[in-house]
Amino acid sequence: MRLPRPPRAHLRAATTVLTALAALSTAALATAAAPAGAADGAKDVSYRGYHVRVPSSWPVIELAAHPDTCVRFDRHAVYLGHATDAGQATCPAGLVGRTEALVIEPLDATGRKSVDRSTRIAPKGAARAAAPRTGGAPSGRIRQAVPAAGVLVTASVGADDAAAQTILDSADLDAGAEAVTLSAAPAGRAEAMSASASAVAAQPGTYTGLGFDPCAAPSNAQMSAWSASPFRAIGVYISGISAACDQPNLTAPWIQTQTSAGWHIIPIHVGLQAPCNTFSHKVSSTLATAASQGHSEAQEAVAAAAALGLPQGSVLYDDMEAYDQTNTACSNAVMTFLSAWTEELHSSGYLSGVYTSATSMADLAGEYTTGTYTMPDHIWFARWNGKADNDATPYVPDEYWADHQRIHQLSGDTDETWGGVTINIDRDYLDVGVGPFAGSCTASLDFSAYGSISAGSSGGLVSAAQCLLMRQGYFTGTVDGAFGSGTTSAVQSFQSAKSLPVTGTVDSHTWTALLSAGTRPTLQSGSTGTDVKRLQRALIAARGQTLSIDGDFGPATTTAVKAYQTAQGLTSDGIVGNLTWSALQAGK
Hints:
Elements: H1 9-12, H2 14-23, H3 37-40, E1 42-47, E2 50-55, E3 60-62, E4 78-80, H4 85-89, E5 101-106, H5 109-112, E6 120-121, E7 141-146, E8 151-156, H6 161-169, E9 172-173, H7 194-197, E10 207-213, H8 220-225, E11 233-239, H9 252-260, E12 264-269, H10 287-307, E13 315-319, H11 328-347, E14 351-357, H12 358-366, E15 378-382, E16 405-418, E17 421-432, H13 460-471, H14 485-497, H15 508-516, H16 530-543, H17 555-567, H18 578-585
Parallel strand pairs: 3-4, 4-5, 6-7, 11-12, 12-13, 13-14, 14-15, 15-16
Antiparallel strand pairs: 1-2, 2-9, 5-8, 7-8, 10-17, 16-17
């Protein structure tokens, strides 16, 4: 029987928050119901001459009158004004998930810091901004500036962009709107001071000790006050469609300031959740789609990290909340997603971390040595036993992720006060190091042939083998193209795990198993992307065929697949499914 994960704050705090919202006085609700509001279930909200219609059940909260309010996106509300540091400090640390909500704030010096290149700008005299033809905005939100009224409007997105867009499309202006001037191409806070932020080292770096993770990044002043605490690491939500709290303080200069002050940053991406969970945004149960989502989510996290000045070699942690591991389809989808997440981060030079409950972490541990999935470099497990250690047994054996690769979330949803500043936090114990992927594994993997290499060999093929062994957790040395004793030992360990002859020589069988390692999405004519490249490399190694490594599953790849399937006694249909992947990953 698996120990259930302790309930997170987003479950326990629901009653408290709803009660607090209901208790707000009528005077605190800046709602002026339009005559038609009762008829269509909507009401008019007015702020600085900007009007928008929202469902009549939504509370409307004046932040100036209620500065201790947490601006959160996991429940419906309209927030008027700027979020305050004191208010964001009250946000329950474990909030996860988004639905439709609205923040309308002044387009003053504070508001302009949140305007970036993804912000839609309403035309002169207009209350609405046209949606861009292409993407680029962070997932989970739509932000538009309305210079005609001097306001910045941020809409969080729930299960469907259309609901939030409909609210924004209802906007209008009245005679009281006062226009402000806004630069046509705002740099925004995410792109500010990139030169100074470039000095930040890979995060969280090397550290053993206590840390904490709040829902929203505290201000510089609050962080300074907490220098009196025993903590020297902080988790921050840098990206993800399920991030629940507004982040007015999280900027590249903030990262620079805190790392200069000796803080270690734990970057968190809280995006798609397990398909068997109740969140609005989920991983697909279709494995090919789950893999694609893993790649996309990692790309989003990398873009956010780069904008904040977090360099290659940093560990980016995917927050995958606890899920039902007895649901095999759900577990397979999560594992496929996380494997693709790791592969994509590695291709961008970042380390991969995964946060989940200790019980759910057992899924990853169960696949640690199988080679079916690409394992994360670091794990962060929630086990609220109050112990400042890195013990995850019986869910994760001590020998897995044993080289300074663990964070233990030991308690949560706690108000702590240091230096006179109170913040709601989860407590963590870190034992982390820079790991084998610090910098990046940039060796080319594309060759027209994969000849045998062994002790004494050197060059590009050796670098490729070292890189592949590193990604599978077998090689911890330097990718230097020199086949020494460390590389030999790594090859032998890999061969033993794959039931291949333990020779220490990377022959065609070992190459095939190395190059094909990873997830097993169904691929066929018309498929494209990194998984097709992985397949093409493995086919070249297995049969010595001439094949372009272009990520395009065209006629040549179809022919090569059919030839391989025939040689292995498989159905020669040109479709790469689990049986074909299994043969390749066994080095056949």
